[in-house]
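quick one: WTA bound model?
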Amino acid sequence: MGTIRSFEDYQEQYKKSIEDPEAFWATIAGEFQWRKKWNKVLEWDFHKPEVKWFIGGKLNITENCIDRHLPQRAKQTAIIWEPNNPKDEALHITYQQLSEEVGKTANMLKAQGVKKGDRVCVYLPMIPQLAYTLLACARIGAVHSVVFAGFSAKSLIDRITDAGSTIVVTADGGFRGDKTINLKGIVDEALEKCPDVSRVIVYEHTKTKAPMKVGRDLWWHEEIKKVNAQCPAEEMDAEDLLFILYTSGSTGKPKGMVHTCGGYMVYTNYTFRTAFNYEEGQVYWCTADIGWITGHSYILYGPLSAGATTVMFEGVPSWPDWGRFWQAIERHKINIFYTAPTAIRSLEKAPISFVESHDLSSLKVLGTVGEPINEEAWNWYDKNIGKGKCPIIDTWWQTETGGFMISPIAHATKLKPAFATLPLPGVQPAVMNESGLEIKGNNIEGRLTIKFPWPSMARTIYGDHQRFKDTYFSTFPGKYFTGDGCKRDEDGYYRITGRVDDIIIVSGHNLGTAEIESAITEHKNVVETAVVGFPHDIKGQAVYAFVILHDKPGNDETLRGEIRETVSKIIGPIAKPDKIQFVSGLPKTRSGKIMRRILRKVAEGDTANLGDTSTLLDPAVVDEIKAGAL
Ligand code: WTA
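yep, here:
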């Protein structure tokens, strides 16, 4: 499908994609290498729900990300790896080298008995071996399940158990700025509770001392020596599983979103090329971690299937100083730069000299993702990084959607600060009111749903199709409910206003309030807790916990510190509450339901406006909470 170069091109492609979605996607899918063509483009039913794309099609995504590029691009850099320490040398991995490394890694996994359909748990820092491992899984038809290497042992246990993984690929440790994280130690702790894991492959990266359990643990560097670089790709059905990736839900248990091979490949590739207006030879950097969907779709699969040069960055934006991003842009002559609002907001606070001392003239397109971007951050990004000449592509999407849904198209869509703008071709949004009716027309506000399938949508929650249906297809029957609220302005432009459920987005990371609550109650002195989000300058939203204690010890701060530690240990440091208020009761209805609406208002500092509290069991508790608000 032709590149979109103007707003008219967009309108034309959008129209085609709505009038005949099957023909539209078949044309795009036809540009890939299939072992066998599909018999039918689409079958779907959002009531069951069931969605299948490219039915009967056979392929391997790695043949599209690697092999098909080799005739023209063997020597082109596929991945630039920028290490944590800028004094260490960056690696330039060519497509030829990528092919060999993935082949070896795939053979190493095979030698350990990994086969098609097995779920491989991957707990690695942002090093090239993370990319090799994912592509190696895809090569042999194993399903990767990446756990972000900032998550705790408990999170690892939940994900390993839910996916039924029997093998874990990890490293001795990972670097993040001046810190070293002992990943193997966390894996060892987790595996005490995962008796089915019989193999751990450990990549030596930080040279952190890692005790190896005989019969279970193997060193990557020893095993990789035993295998060769040729690994034939497994033939996969378009609807075979490619990966599972966990995201937070409204209950404590994370949801294993399932993505399949064919549709995911077609859609991530199309959206990458289209939204960023990617041009042959450009160098692209997405600063996300591969532990999140953004890294899966837009560090690896989208860019590599497009034959781009994609950057993997191991470090953090603040180390050794706040110029780190800008220095790397200059060093690698980045053309397309994609980051998160939370990063922009913290970079904005640093002296502007960190930006000005670097040559950013290679930049052509900027992007943002993960949470609504506020106008101030948008303007700062535009002026100081894009120098007023780079479009900002504000991509709205989700782990569940697999790829961009609502987003401007570089050089085609007229931008508006803080607006994700318009749906990409193939995406059919519908805004609903609370009684379940679609709100037509413009200048409206409501809940965002999608009424027609797109190729990269998640097919189910691993092992729990009922939950998939209940979470996404029951609130508005026949439509996919995103969990987000939005406005549609007079031009039909969408502005995402944030979550309307019990998920809060802290520094771009989704956290379920129930998940944090259950972590806090693990502290021995906690009776009950309720968690809400509140606006935060840099993180976008932060965690506010109302906590009832068994008995009140002398020092509140010590106790707060302990509670934060408990959460950090159970979920990970990102989930630590910023504010912890001790209360003697929570505002509950007579049926025992916590009225979070009231707590949200208190957390936002808007106590004058609590609304109706007459249905509460004990209205007096509200006065106490108001008086003690932090
Ligand atoms: C939010 C990340 C506003 C939204 C790709 C969504 C955004 C959730 C944007 C998914 C954006 C993501 N503008 N909000 N550009 N992008 N969100 O699953 O609330 O980690 O539902 O996927 O992030 O987060 P997830």
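Residues 247, 292-294, 369-372, 394-399, 420, 482-484, 496, 498-499, 505, 510 surround WTA (CB under 6 Å).
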